[in-house]
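The instructor's notes for this session suggest beginning with a concrete chain rather than abstract definitions. Hand out the sequence below and ask the class to guess, before any prediction is shown, which regions might be ordered.
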Amino acid sequence: MAVDLLLGLQWGDEGKGKIVDVLTKNYDIIARFQGGPNAGHTLIFDGEKHVLHTIPSGIFHDKALNVVGNGVVIDPVIFKKELENLDKHKINYTSKLLISRKAHLILPTHRLLDAASETSKGKAKIGSTLKGIGPTYMDKTGRNGMRVGDLELENWKDKYDALTAKHIKMLEFFDVQIEYDLKELETEFCKGIDKLRTLQFIDSEEFLNQAIKDKKTILAEGAQGSLLDIDFGTYPFVTSSNTTAAGACTGLGVAPNKIGDVFGIFKAYTTRVGSGPFPTELFDEDGETMGRVGHEFGATTGRPRRCGWLDLVALKYAVDVNGVTQLMMMKGDVLSGFDTLKVCTSYNYKGEKITHLPYNIEPENVYVNYTEFKGWNEDITKMTSVDELPKNLMDYIAFIEKETGVPVKIVSVGPDRKQTILR
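After discussion, reveal the predicted structure:
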């Protein structure tokens, strides 16, 4: 048995949560492998909207076990709120939600450091979600971090106090005004720790490798998107973890030769939250229509997403870096009504026409070349089979398949789990 991966191929917000929810019936275990509560995975079913930030998207299925892997960073305060939301829906998570002892904890002072760092950058802000993600990963790589397993040790509070004291000193470095009540923050943090302790802590790498030997089916769930990868994204406007396929190996303790299918999720157009270069970004009526019809607001921050045409140069790059075996196209319904669609097929980069993603895609270096397609006017949200889809949409999909060399196996025609067409 192998571990299948599901990850985003753009700047996040591709609709991974919905597809994990759709695919969960095929898997025994859903395992989240990186990121933290800067993720927002939205699921809609039975007329209700659910947003998960840290918990794997398979939690709403009775039979699936859900694992938060070692590559994830956990904010106990946010995690507690997520669990309380599951309580409202009578989800019995205590028996099917397992936490890696090696996952790192986000402390209240990590969030303060995040806010101070971002404020100090002024106009050069990277668009942090201010959830403390970056400072937590910095402590992890600096060998200073606190992990879930530390909570089982008698001296965990000593370790917490020492790291917090270090952070308070670091805040002075940024020379910005950050108002906070540490006592109040710590009270909430401790309540979160108490809630976290109600779950089972596991050595996740041993658990998952044994599951592979026992021929269990496993789906690894990524957060954010490939273009936000700390190594391969649009640095420095990226997240602090490896969002690409390699991150699943380090984030779960699974060997590369145990990876099976790689499901790549992308929107029929492109969006981006926060700062950073975005070659196909639109500032006209078309961009405004995409945002309005697609309800393009960040699931975690509520910030409006920047919208633009599909960037095939970037998409092919993500397909190659991840070794994608199946593509899944989201939000095709949002493009209904456009007379003409555009797809970026190459860049003019410093005077040269290229079809690969270069080192720097800032506007002064990149000019976009488009290929145009005829749009479609049909409302596809109620369509249930490939045969019903408009010819122009099928031509659009066929072009994407030809250019990437990877089949599009799922076409999403709406936000509900039922609005999903398998090919």
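Then share the key points. The longest strand covers residues 340-349. The CA atoms of residues 249 and 256 lie 6 Å apart.
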